[in-house]
Amino acid sequence: MKKVLVIGDGCSDIFRYGKCDRLSPEAPVPIFLPSRTTGNGGMAINVFENLKALGIECDIITNDIRPIKTRYVDEISNQMLLRVDEKDTIKRINIEELESIDFTKYDAVVISDYNKGFLNEKDIEYIGGKHLQVFIDTKKNLNTWCDNILCIKINEKEYLNNLEYFNKRKNCYVIVTKGKNGAMLSNGTNDNFEEFPIVEEHDVRDLSGAGDTFLAALVAKFLENLDIRAGISFANKCSSWVVTQKGVVVVDLNKIEIIK
């Protein structure tokens, strides 16, 4: 069995479902009547849980004190009315803990960096220098500190904001996710993209956590035979399924046709 280390910012995702059938007489805002609450680990923890669901032995290093993201959602329409973020800043990883990691135990390392403070640029540069197969999804503006990263997963807006870096960086996998339009792969040459469209259209109910699922599925499939294209196709399949579910959910292989 392949073994992966996930390292990055973790949070608690809380969903409060209820109904809104009238406006407040005090202000033009809906009155929310809560009926049920669900919760699970998010961000790096969601990547970790998805990797485990995909059959990967997995360790995680993340923050103990977690930000809380509470979403208030109309039960009938699944429309999010409000998101409240608490404790949004995370304490940096203990340097001794980082330097004590035995990276040789892992087939890949996944950095899930939401730029909340758990990892800084020097930490990521250090990790990139310790393992040949490092995958990263980061909200930071890219620079030379990620030059040793094998695979950069980034959304379309983030990619456009980092064109200066990608014009210089070669010989890495750059995977740009494009929502309902799937993803595209570059080998570092910006005019040489390969498109990976979503094969089947799905009714989107909730986008929360889809990027985490994509990253986990990409890594899990890639480790089977080091085929990045198969990884992207499988990641498209998994992430397009999870958006049909309510809240942040872990991929269920029993409900997904496995791409061989």
Task: Report what the structure shows.
This protein has a single domain, classed as UDP-N-acetylmuramoyl-L-alanine:D-glutamate ligase, CATH 3.40.1190. Helices cover 25% and strands 29% of the residues. It contains seven helices and twelve strands. The strands form two sheets. Strands 4-1-7-8-9-10-11-12 form an eight-stranded mixed beta sheet, sandwiched between helices. It has a four-stranded mixed beta sheet with strand order 3-2-5-6. α1 packs across α6 and α6 packs antiparallel against α7. The model has no long low-confidence stretch (mean pLDDT 91).
Name of the CATH first level: Alpha Beta
Number of domains: 1
Mean pLDDT: 91
Q: What distance separates the N and C termini?
A: 18 Å
Instruction: Please trace the helix and strand order, writing H or E for each element.
Output: EEEHEEEHEHEEHHEEEHH
The secondary structure category is: alpha/beta
Q: CATH topology, what is it called?
A: UDP-N-acetylmuramoyl-L-alanine:D-glutamate ligase
Globally, the shape reads globular
SS summary, helix count: 7
List segments where confidence is low: pLDDT < 50 over at least 5 consecutive residues. Answer: none
Q: Radius of gyration from the CA trace? A: 19 Å
> By CATH's scheme, which homologous superfamily applies?
Ribokinase
Strand order of the largest sheet: 4-1-7-8-9-10-11-12
Task: Present the secondary structure layout.
Elements: E1 3-8, E2 10-19, E3 33-43, H1 44-53, E4 57-61, E5 68-74, E6 80-86, H2 95-99, E7 108-113, H3 121-128, E8 134-138, E9 151-155, H4 156-161, H5 163-168, E10 173-177, E11 183-186, E12 193-196, H6 210-225, H7 228-242
Parallel strand pairs: 1-4, 1-7, 2-5, 7-8, 8-9, 9-10
Antiparallel strand pairs: 2-3, 5-6, 10-11, 11-12
